[in-house]
Model the fold of this input.
Amino acid sequence: MDYQIEIRHADLEPIQFRCDSSQTLIDAAKAAGFKLASTCLRGGCGACKAVVISGTVTALSPMSQNHCLSDDAAISYQLICVAAPSSDLIIETESPWKTRTVNPLSARLG
Ligand code: FES
Done:
């Protein structure tokens, strides 16, 4: 099943794309033409951390809980390189993304 994803950043227009429940948010964004901040892509470094404003995610592989903590108890970070949606999502990130041109054939193949 796939879900509607919206990612927000304080200085950018929100981006939207679809993401299957078996796909990481980073991979779905990349397929849609958006390169989100990341480094390890294994849930270990925290470079991709983002706050879930609404909706829920599922971890497809282990994620470092140290990077999910916040000084504000109301904020819980998710590492979107290993997280997949389990509902429609609105996410906010502190790191800006880059937009890339998507090869039409790649976009069709997902
Ligand atoms: S890129 Fe390192 S935790 Fe996601």
In short: The mean pLDDT is 92. The chain is about 15% helix and 35% strand. Residues 2-94 form a domain with the Ubiquitin-like (UB roll) fold (CATH 3.10.20.30).
